[in-house]
Give the backbone structure.
Amino acid sequence: MSSGSAPAPISPASPGRPRQPSLAQLRAFASVAEHLHFRDAATAIGMSQPALSSAVSALEESLGIRLVERTTRKVLLSPAGERLAVRARAVLDAVGAFMEEAEAARAPFTGVLRLGVIPTVAPYLLPTVLRLVHDAYPDLDLQVHEEQTSSLLDGLTQGRLDLLLLAVPLGVPGITELPLFDEDFVLVTPCDHWLAGRDDIPREALRELDLLLLDEGHCLRDQALDVCREVGRSEGAPVTTSAAGLSTLVQLVGGGLGVTLLPRTAVRVETGRSDRLATGDFADPAPSRRIALAMRSSAARQGEFSEFADALRVELRKLPVRIVD
């Protein structure tokens, strides 16, 4: 049908709802409504003029409404056409936005990444993570959530979080771990402690020490207690639990209330604030922990997260850790 041909009669709308139009029909009609000329409208959307005219006619027939008035000289919109042209453009704009969002989701390292981090990792590793994201992934919207392990796991399994940075193993079905590094625990003591400054402390020394630990719920507390059990520390040996964070813990050590275990990545930050603290290294094999990224095993972004882990391992080589390749 050309712009100068006689309009075909529109059949009355069939009972019930009109047939749903196709995107091609809406695109053709919206172009005609914009240009009010079939040839120009067809050129604008890359269709042949007959195909465009046929699409508009099919749309009119499916709706049972005359949308376009065709004469030998010009094209006009009917009153119904003027109203529906606005709706057609809104639909096409929404579809365009939908496709743009899908493209962004398909492109790696774009959009939002909700990263959960445990408190005994966040202050010491986040500078490295944030620098990597800033330099290598500028289009990534990183959102950081610092929570204890149990809360992070709930957030991951429920979809509130996308990726976790925490101590492993977790042993949770449906969660894949991407190991990053191992780090030793360091004994933090008062300066005048008999173990201060030693580099050959036997694990067995932990059996009778006045050990200060974090509150329940912190995985570092559980890891320290595991080490104590391994060396045969008795259940009755003093364990003081009075700190919600590592900063408070080392202050208690500096005050002479006992000793504690710190992951090596935390030592410089936490002991550098006081001249009343000393450190000691354990003899090999030193007690240690493993830090990893964790994701849902069904995550659509598994490839992206694995690549992120690879890049992060490279950056973490600058820290006092043993990278797990």
